[in-house]
Amino acid sequence: MPYSELLNPGVRRRDFWAWASLDFANSGYTTVVLTAVFNAYFVSVVMADNPLATLAWTVILSVSYLLVMVSAPWLGAYADAYGAKRRLLLWATIACVLATAGLAAVGPGNWLLAAVLLVVSNLAYASHQDLTAGYLQELSPPSHLGRLSGYGWAWGYWGGLLALALSLVWIQAVAPAFAPGLADAFGLTLSASGGLPAQWLVGGAMVLVAILFAVVGFPALAVLAGHRGYATAAGIGGDTEAVAASEDWKGAWRRLWAGWSRLSPDLPLRKMLVCITVYQAGVATVITLAAVYAQQVMGFDMAKTILLVLVVNITASIGAFLFGKFQDRVGHRNSLVISLLAWILMVLVAAVGETEAMFWLAANLAGLAMGASQSGARAAISVLGPADRQAEVFGYWGVAVHLASILGPLAYGLTTALTQNNHRMAIAVTGLFFVVGLVLLLRIPFTETKRPS
Predict the structure, then answer these.
(1) What is the CATH code for 11-235+248-447?
(2) What's the CA gap between 444 and 141, in Å, rounded?
(3) To the nearest 5 percent, what fractions of the chain are helix, strand and coil?
(4) Whether 313 contacts 365, CB under 8 Å
(5) Where are the domains of the chain?
(6) Angle CA(24)–CA(214)–CA(103) in degrees, nearest 5?
(7) By the 8 A CB rule, do 10 and 82 touch?
């Protein structure tokens, strides 16, 4: 299908690619910092395999997500009132880049420094992701939101793949090749095996992620500076500047709460937000604890863990790309039901599988389901939300997603703390989020709110 049919009138092809590249830029953070490298490093090195290390990791992330919950709706309402999505995205990019690079300074025992930098970087990353989603209905008509969201999410996974590949090359090839020289230059002590310490290897990966975010993110925002916005591009909505002139910070709050009061418990949008809160708790758990599970249960080393997540990102990209077209064809609810069934199957395989092959199967099922459920939820929320309040609606979406990011990982961490680090039991508990989410999803009447194509 040509771009002219996927995009709203007046939206340039470069606007779409710039928007999709925001996903590309921020995916390196969640893939390398939260999923593949720093989480396992925090548990095994920073916390020295303390029995409460997994719980500590989930508590730190929960604090950051609590801050996101408080700020996301307000940022969304403010962005709508002032036409400030791009400006807020710029500040989120700067904060995430600097805090991620700062993680390179975290060594064994530096859990407090790690906690502060993680809270700042994850708050900035999550805000960046929510504000990026607010552009979706500016770019595409409702009939193609699923496809465009899937394309953007698929391209985003390739950003995670690039960040992972660079990290793997650094850890496996570049750093070891120059280990003696680097050790001498920076006063490092080589490990007993003759390699650089884990802090140096992980720190280099953190710097690479920060550089990639900056190199892709800032030019993408520069292109979006020429994007004319919803009112002129889509031909709908009011004068953003006039709205901004009549609103202030308190006005943004009033607008936020007035919008939320219209979301009665019977409205499909509100039901969908509750559903996302439940099943996304399972998704967030897999994202933030996959590497910990791989190392603690399956005995993966850092290089194998990175390779695992790299492959999973490929399957996730495929899932998001194919799922978008499928979602527009069969409907939002039906397609999301299939993705949740895939998640439930993945949990069963991971919980009972004893072999490495079974774990690889579970991981790739998670990849396919992840790409489908995340890009699909973004499109569904955009369809259910008012056309001229998309940033505000995605502020609510941010609350749902980040409340889930507190509930899921905390449930996992508490389970490991109460069961002497029984990670298989913890992943089984995670499956309950998908089961309940599926039940709630089946009760949402998407057909009542379907927009004409």
Answers:
(1) 1.20.1250.20
(2) 22
(3) 85, 0, 15
(4) no
(5) 11-235+248-447
(6) 100
(7) no
Which of 286, 401, 299 has the alpha carbon at shortest distance from 346? 286
Model-level pTM?
A: 0.76
Alpha carbon separation from 58 to 52, 159, 251, 437, 443 (Å, rounded): 10, 25, 35, 21, 31
The angle, 0 to 180 degrees and rounded to 10, between the axes of the packed helices 53-82 and 390-418 is 170
In whole angstroms, what is the distance from residue 278 CA to residue 354 CA? 28
* DSSP code, position 12: -
Cα(174)–Cα(164) distance, rounded to whole angstroms? 14
Contact 323, 372 (CB under 8 A): yes
What is the per-residue pLDDT across 289-329, written as a single tens digit (0 to 9) for each?
Answer: 878 888 888 888 877 888 888 888 788 777 767 766 676 67
Structure tokens at 425: 């039991």
Query: pLDDT tens digits for 6-65?
Result: 776 777 788 888 888 998 999 999 889 988 889 888 988 899 878 888 899 999 999 998
| SS3 state at 59 | helix
Q: Residue 278 and residue 220: Cα distance in Å, rounded?
A: 33
Both tokens assigned to 335: 């397609």
400, 269 in Cβ contact below 8 A?
Answer: no
Residue-level pLDDT at 243: 42
Residue 81's alpha-carbon distances to 56, 93, 243, 255, in angstroms, are 38, 21, 6, 9
Backbone angles phi, psi at 420, to 5 degrees: 55, 50
* Residue among 422, 40, 344, 25 at smallest CA distance from 210: 25
Residue type, 47: M
- Measured at the CA of 254, the angle between CA 248 and CA 256, to 5 degrees, comes to 105
- Using the 8-state DSSP alphabet, how is residue 7 labeled? S
The closest of 132, 24, 155 to 395, measured between CA atoms, is 132
Buried b (16+ CB within 10 A) or exposed e, 328-337: beebbbebbb
CA 137 to chain centre: 19
C-alpha dihedral over 270, 274, 280, 281, to 10 degrees?
A: 150
**Cα 392–chain centre separation:** 18
In angstroms, the CA 279 to CA 343 distance is 9
H helices within 29-144, ranges in order? Answer: 38-41, 53-82, 85-102, 111-133, 136-139
230: amino acid identity, one letter: Y
